[in-house]
Amino acid sequence: MSYEDTDDIDDLAEEPDELAEMSLDELREEIGDIDRELVELIARRTYVADTIAGVKERQDLPTTDETQEQAVMDRAGANAERFEVDSNLVKAIFRLLIELNKVEQRESR
């Protein structure tokens, strides 16, 4: 089962049974697949953030947009709650992603 089209934790109800029947090697392979997907998503997010940086530069806008950053954090927290994941952990990851994008934006200017 793939999480990519899942909007709610209830949609994943069958997943624990499927995972329980997998061998250790299969479970590790599943983690490896998820890790690759995470890296791909981070790369996609970074590409879009770089594109945003170009728009900001052309429009002479500041690198930091606190209102947008707060919206991202709020969305991350809401998504964490929806999927029953620790919202503090998810927000910490998103804070890191935001900071990394801001550093790249500053360096590219």
Task: List descriptors.
mainly alpha, 73% helix, 109 residues, 4 helices, elongated, 0% strand
Radius of gyration: 17 Å
Helix content: over 70%
Biggest sheet record: none
Helical stretch tally: 4
N-to-C order of helices and strands: HHHH
The gross shape turns out to be elongated
* Strand tally: 0
Distance between the termini: 42 Å
User: How much is the average pLDDT?
Assistant: 88
Which quaternary structure do these chains form?
single chain
The fraction of residues in strands falls at under 5%
Query: Helices and strands: which structural class?
Result: mainly alpha
* Uncertain residue ranges: none
Could you explain the architecture of this structure?
With 109 residues, the protein is an all-alpha fold. 73% of the residues lie in helices and 0% in strands. It has helices at 15-20, 24-58, 66-82, 87-108. Helix 2 crosses helix 4 and helix 3 (66-82) packs antiparallel against helix 4 (87-108). The longest helix has 35 residues, at 24-58. It is elongated and about 55 Å long.
Q: Brief overview, please?
A:
By secondary structure, the chain is an all-alpha fold. Helix content is 73%, strand content 0%.
Topology:
Layout: H1 15-20, H2 24-58, H3 66-82, H4 87-108
Helix pairs in contact: 2-4, 3-4
